[in-house]
Design goal:
- By secondary structure, the chain is mostly helical.
- It has a domain of 215 residues.
- The chain is 73% helix and 3% strand.
- The strands form 2 sheets. A two-stranded antiparallel ribbon has the order 1-4. A two-stranded antiparallel ribbon has the order 2-3.
- The radius of gyration is 20 Å and the shape is globular.
């Protein structure tokens, strides 16, 4: 008799099957909005590598997405038909950069780690503004080059990029689940739960957390690549600290370490907030109340799952 399919696998397959069906039936003007949700969801998934597995509170996701976006656009301006080489190079470069900056940050206390990652986003913005002749500065720059696939030609269209975003998110989820169930993943969780006990067992905490931080940076950079070539225009505000804070908010709502709940939180809550346009100036208050309720629900869900005192 064949082994039963794990419930988490069935949930993931159902989740992506529903999203794929939505992408097939929604009109293009609706997909334009949904693609922005998927871009944010991928950054939430990227942060889950850092916080959910490695226990690193990161505010660098906006900066890493911006690095991927600008690096890809500038590289494609010189080699417009080399996407199959340039995109992997950008992703690997983002992984190496994120992993490299993670090592020295391990010497900081946990309270300072978030401030250090905040510096990554701020430095990215300042570099873009300073190099205005190349990046367009605060005015931004038009993206004339498309992602090019041999045999298919340049990629364009809302539906095409919907499935590209969906494929990146599915691939990221598979990597997350595979890593979490692997030996390095269990070591990462041990470092997160009890660093001293993990170190006493011979686990190299700095090396493992640089792996999770590097993967988070690479996933955000990939989201930035797709976002830049999809929108046709980029500026630093699209990859500002606000993106990092929103990713952290939705991950906290869904629960760090959980695979699907943070992604569902993005899609559902962003859709609800977009539907509040009729409230006018009261929309901001409604958004805050909605997010507060979601945060409290996530908190009490977590409290409810903790064992009672005196119970295993």
């Amino acid at each position: 008799m064949s082994p039963a399919i794990p419930r988490s696998t069935r949930n993931a397959v159902g989740f992506f099957a529903i999203l794929a069906a939505v992408g097939l039936v929604l009109p293009d003007y609706r997909l334009l909005v949904v693609n922005q949700y998927l871009f944010l969801a991928i950054n939430v998934l990227a942060l889950n590598f850092c916080l959910g597995l490695g226990g690193q509170i990161s505010l660098a996701q906006g900066g890493m997405a911006g690095i991927g976006a600008y690096a890809s656009v500038l590289a494609h301006s010189h080699f417009p038909h080399a996407s199959v080489l340039l995109v992997p190079a950008v992703i690997l470069g983002a992984f190496a950069f994120a992993a490299a900056i993670s090592r020295p940050m391990e010497r900081l206390g946990e309270g300072f780690l978030a401030m250090a990652t905040l510096g990554v986003s701020l430095i990215f913005t300042n570099v873009v503004l300073t190099m205005g002749d190349v990046t367009g500065g605060s005015a931004g720059m038009m993206v004339d080059c498309r992602l090019y696939v041999p045999g298919l030609g340049p990629l364009s269209g809302d539906r095409t990029f919907f499935f590209l975003f969906l494929a990146v998110m599915a691939c990221g989820c598979w990597i997350f689940a595979a890593l979490k169930d692997s030996r390095p993943g269990r070591a990462l969780l041990a470092c997160k739960d009890d660093p001293l006990a993990a170190s006493s067992c011979g686990i190299d905490r700095a090396a493992l957390r640089s792996l999770s931080f590097g993967l988070g940076g690479a996933v955000s950079a990939m989201a930035g690549v797709l976002h830049a070539h999809y929108g046709g225009f980029i500026n630093p505000e699209q990859y500002s600290l606000e993106l990092s804070l929103k990713a952290l908010l939705f991950l906290v709502i869904g629960g760090p370490g959980n695979l699907l709940r943070p992604l569902l939180a993005v899609l559902i809550l962003e859709a609800l907030m977009s539907g509040m346009q009729f409230l006018g100036d009261a929309r901001t208050l409604a958004h805050g109340l909605l997010l507060t309720v979601a945060l409290l629900a996530g908190y009490w869900r977590g409290v409810g799952r903790k064992p009672a005192a005196g119970r295993p």
